[in-house]
Design goal:
4-stranded antiparallel sheet, Thrombin, subunit H, 1 helix
Length: about 150
């Protein structure tokens, strides 16, 4: 039986993410734990890397600088969109908006600033540029299927 997390493991765990010193942004500690397979896209790859070699049933808190978690804020990922593009509903600062790209894929950004004629949409991750706390407790490392 595996007692430390390895790449590709399927895990059941509790986790919390918060801005350093702040309230939880997302947490499973007061709810049911989550089950995920490392590399399946459930967690950001940068966060997954902190799980490798963690033992079972120990709670760990990692203080992660922006480059260790969600990256630095990139000003080039803030784009201005004409305000008249928002004909379905008026933009609201902080709201998440999804855009459909020409290839059919989707891209989400949040409304950063509303100007007279356009709206600044920030396509950075909401936690980009922030120091975060990543708290985790591995409850189960599931056996790998043959």
């Amino acid at each position: 039986m595996n007692t430390h997390v390895q790449p590709g493991d399927t895990l059941t765990l509790h986790f919390a993410i918060r801005i350093h010193g702040g309230q939880d942004i997302d947490s499973s500690f007061d709810d049911a734990p989550i089950t995920l397979t490392l590399g399946d896209g459930t967690l950001e790859p940068a966060l997954e890397s902190w799980l490798i070699d963690l033992p079972l049933n120990e709670r760990h808190v990692f203080i992660l600088e922006p480059q260790q978690a969600f990256g630095m804020h990139d000003a080039q990922l803030v784009q201005d969109v004409p305000i008249d593009e928002f004909h379905d509903a008026p933009p609201v600062v902080g709201n998440l908006i999804e855009f459909e790209l020409p290839d059919g894929s989707h891209l989400s950004g949040h409304v950063a600033v509303i100007h007279e004629h356009d709206v600044s949409i920030d396509f950075n991750h909401l936690l980009a540029g922030k120091t975060i706390e990543f708290e985790v407790e591995i409850l189960t490392i599931h056996p790998r299927l043959p």
